[in-house]
């Protein structure tokens, strides 16, 4: 392995070249097919040339099937090629731009695609693995570089864009995304279309979706808890202080600009503590213990609304910027809600864990560096000590 294994100059883990042509918005129109375990449809990309004369848009893909690429305005087909897979990083999708696309304005490109049933970023669960056992369940986890397994994208956190989505599912299912919902629309064949807008530019790893037999309970002016009906009352009680945590975070960091704050309690097989999807924290059911003792995870995920989701690491070598500042603010929130002693205890506990981990790995182990070196082809997921996201 050598430094030449970096996939691009700005991000060793992404083929994309946002220094040449960058996405400013993604509009998704997709259907969820639980039978085939695929999300299929059309992604429309608003793009702008960053480099005058740029002749291609380069996207990351991983086991996606690309059916067609075309200009939204004229429907003219665009030439494209999908490269050979490179390690665990997927394949480069290179789209040749039309010469009519302007150097100094936006243009729109449509891609018809579907993902592989084996997409790392999507978890498909049969009904019998859910609490209610009535409907199947789907949730995404695109951090760090799994967005490319779900849709073609510039899968580097240095690119931020708005997104919107129309997602069609069977009527019995509810769809949530990391965005603000609009009223649903009826669709043919006993289906329904959910509509979302995310007006704040985000990196594509923060696009998130969950589909299941879900119900909700509002617990604050901006805060709603979602879960299967079997868990909703317990979940709402456990996370009752979420709105207060949000207000405390605002006192420390400034206004919460994402509009709504939803907490979704995932099914029992969810392998993380929490995931900080904008507008929609994913929370493990193991946080519901009946005494609110594990809800600091919610303070952590709320904090990511500023550190990570608004101010973001440029690439995954600098992941400490997302997590380090989030831990700092999380403990500030704990201090304001539970007292300075609790904050000091949490800080000391974190420091002890860090010292122990460095000793275990060895102080000269490159994985103990604050800023990682991923240019040797190391996958970001192989470089993090733990998945405390
Ligand atoms: Zn985190």
Blueprint of the fold:
Elements: E1 21-33, E2 38-49, E3 56-61, E4 65-71, E5 80-82, E6 91-96, E7 106-114, E8 122-125, E9 137-140, E10 161-170, E11 174-177, E12 180-187, E13 191-202, E14 209-212, E15 215-218, E16 223-227, H1 232-238, H2 242-253, E17 261-265, E18 274-275, E19 280-283, H3 296-303, H4 319-338, H5 340-361, H6 380-383
Parallel strand pairs: 1-10, 16-17, 17-19
Antiparallel strand pairs: 1-2, 2-7, 3-6, 4-7, 5-6, 8-9, 9-14, 10-13, 11-14, 12-13, 15-16, 18-19
Residues 276, 300, 304, 323, 326, 389 line the site of zinc ion (ZN).
Protein described:
With 389 residues, the protein is α+β, with helices and mostly antiparallel strands. The protein is 19% helix and 31% strand. Helix 2 crosses helix 3 and helix 2 packs across helix 4. The chain is globular and about 65 Å long. The model has no long low-confidence stretch (mean pLDDT 96). The structure holds zinc ion (ZN). Residues 276, 300, 304, 323, 326, 389 line the site of zinc ion (ZN). InterPro entries: Aminopeptidase_N-like_N, Aminopeptidase_N-like_N_sf, LTA4H_cat, M1_LTA4H, Peptidase_M1, Peptidase_M1_dom, Peptidase_M4/M1_CTD_sf. This is LTA4H.
Helix content: 10-25%
The molecules bound to the chains, other than polymers, are: zinc ion
Strand percentage: 25-35%
Secondary-structure class: alpha+beta
Instruction: Write down the CATH topology of the domain at 15-212.
Output: Immunoglobulin-like
Distance between the termini: 28 Å
What would the principal axes of the Cα set say about the shape? Answer: globular
Q: What is the string of helix and strand elements?
A: EEEEEEEEEEEEEEEEHHEEEHHHH
Domain Aminopeptidase N-like N-terminal: 27-206
Family: Belongs to the peptidase M1 family.
Keywords: Cytoplasm, Hydrolase, Metal-binding, Metalloprotease, Protease, Zinc
Domain Peptidase M1 membrane alanine aminopeptidase: 237-342
